[in-house]
Amino acid sequence: MKLSRHLEENKKQARAVFPIGKSFDLITRDLRLGNTKAWLLAVNGMCRTDVLQEIFSDLQNPVFMANADIQDLSRYLSSKIGYAQAQLENDWDEIVTALMSGPSVLFVDGFADAIILDTRTYPARGISEPDTERVTLGSRDGFVETMLFNANLIRRRIRNPRLTFDVRRIGTDSRTDIAVAYIDGYVDPVLLEKVLERLETIKATSLTMGAKSLEELLVPKRWYHPLPSIQQTQRPDVACSYLTEGNLLLLVDNSPSVLILPSTIFQFTQSPEDYYKSPLVGSYSRLLRFCCIFISLFLLPVFLLIGSYYPETVISRTLFPVQRLGPIRLFWYVLFAELALDLFQYSASHSPSSYSGSLSIVGGLILSDAAIDLHWVSLEVMFYAAATLLSSLALSSTAFSEGIRFYRIFLLLMTGFFGRFGFAAGCLLVLLSILTTPSFAGKSFFWPLYPFNKKALSTLLLRRPTYKAQPDNIWKRERKKTDQKP
Asked: Are residues 58 and 146 in the same domain?
């Protein structure tokens, strides 16, 4: 629907679309630009009133309005309104979207165009370091809920003129802005085309949970796929490192997380901490983290399997003193320890930071001691459960760690109810679930293991020095520049 040339008709249409007079945050103002009537519509709190005051103070200055009548709105905009972010718009849908996003709208009598003044401002928190991706060294900034701020954090680190932020809009109700960030010439053009096509075809009313909702819309999964398919990060340095490697990012307005495409299972095992240490120490930390994946997944199920069905091995090897416990009792002990430690982990993560640490430590000591005295659990079970919890916390990705936890609980249930065959069948089902985890655009979730790429795999397993980790095309360009010098 297009605007009318008559101001009163536009005001009537605006009142039919917006709850003007009912919603306190919608502000209007009748203005006169010389002899020409005008009408301002804006959202209070999302527009900078000081900037608007300066704009209209100049427009109503007699020196500026020597010619009392506005003859050409486009010429008037370019000659009288010196504000940088101003444009004309004649489509009602675009005007509604712009107004709900923060810009102010100025309707002028006699013209079928409105002036969009992008004087928006958003409440924003500080760009502090994200709690889930802390490092001992390195930058202390993180993404926030304002997409423009996030784009600036990336642009500040990558000053390549070919860095592009392509904006799309998703959601019939929310109309959430999505920015596809990539470096032209680095990104795979086929992947970029598939991402843009997928964003255009997504049908949704709103992205209620921000980046997480977009992830589920991009890669639909079934309930038996607990592992994440797309990596998320709240650190600008991590996001920029993937950009320079040829990946692309999806920035979602109102969300502090950035999606990285394409993603593989090995990306969830990496941590920015590795790159703020020496290559040798970083490689050790990374290999230790790989070991923690298997410890977190198999330690408790294997403990339950051996303690329940191979007690003679336990006695001969003196692995742990569980020969006095039967399979059923040991199963309930292990299950209680697993659920109790998960409860403490969740309660500590949702408690205020001022006492979350003391709550988890003191509460864990008190509950575990009381549970042992009441014979709800044994000392060795609590030890192996605590070792499992520490291994889970060592994983850098929270979503990946939670997926491993789901697999571990599944293996415990299969082993407890079906014994040896249950453990074997559970391992096969877990492997099948991991192998069938979907990825975006058909990219291999296990690259560079499949298809096999020895050089890339060694880079993922070991922390390589910076001068060896640069993309090949970087060195080719540098050599080409050197050869061209006289």
From this structure: no
